[in-house]
């Protein structure tokens, strides 16, 4: 299924994820889900992110946020499915800016939006350089 991956400090990007093991690999551990039935999506994150001292990622409201990498997929009674292109674009914009958790004031989280970095493209396998000729 096509999902939107959101890493701390990185611009969200689309990725193909299939099966429970790949889900765990994306988030870096056992999965935890947050359902948003009114939006038809689920956020899948690492349930141990705070305990394993993952970085704060994005806020979801005044006193709610996610630590570590998460991804967003479509969801209904039948289970998880690919995001539509419109959903991927919408949530890509919604979670575009990286956030830093600064603290809490009057019981509300204080976050600062910052410009995210682009995820580096994977390196291609290159031939090793030829030794110099004598």
Structural class: mainly beta
Per DSSP E runs of 2 or more residues, the count of β-strands stands at 10
Low-confidence stretches: none
N/C terminus separation: 54 Å
**Fraction of residues in helix:** 10-25%
Could you explain the architecture of this structure?
The radius of gyration is 18 Å and the shape is globular. The chain has two helices and ten strands. The model has no long low-confidence stretch (mean pLDDT 90). The strands form three sheets. Strands 1, 2, 3, 4, 7 and 8 form a six-stranded antiparallel beta sheet that branches. By secondary structure, it is mostly beta strands. A hairpin with a 2-residue loop joins strand 5 and strand 6 (64-67). The longest helix has 10 residues, at 85-94.
List the helices and strands and how they pair.
Elements: E1 2-6, E2 13-16, H1 20-27, E3 31-36, E4 41-46, E5 56-61, E6 64-67, E7 70-76, E8 79-81, H2 85-94, E9 98-105, E10 108-114
Antiparallel strand pairs: 1-2, 1-7, 3-4, 4-7, 5-6, 7-8, 9-10
Key words describing this protein structure:
134 residues; mainly beta; 6-stranded antiparallel β-sheet; two-stranded antiparallel ribbon; 10 strands; 13% helix
Quick overview of this protein structure:
By secondary structure, this protein is mostly beta strands. Helices cover 13% and strands 42% of the residues.
């Amino acid at each position: 299924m096509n999902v939107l991956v959101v890493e701390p400090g990185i611009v969200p990007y689309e990725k193909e994820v299939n099966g429970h093991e790949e889900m765990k690999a994306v988030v870096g551990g056992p999965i935890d889900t947050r359902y948003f039935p009114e939006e038809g999506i689920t956020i899948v994150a690492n349930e141990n992110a705070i305990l394993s001292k993952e970085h704060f990622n994005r806020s979801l409201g005044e006193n709610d946020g996610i630590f570590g990498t998460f991804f967003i997929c479509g969801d209904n009674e039948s289970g998880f499915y690919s995001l539509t292109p419109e959903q991927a674009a919408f949530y890509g914009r919604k979670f575009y800016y990286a956030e830093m958790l600064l603290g809490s004031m009057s019981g509300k989280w204080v976050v600062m939006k910052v410009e995210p970095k682009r995820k580096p493209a994977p390196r291609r396998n290159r031939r090793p350089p030829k030794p110099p000729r004598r």
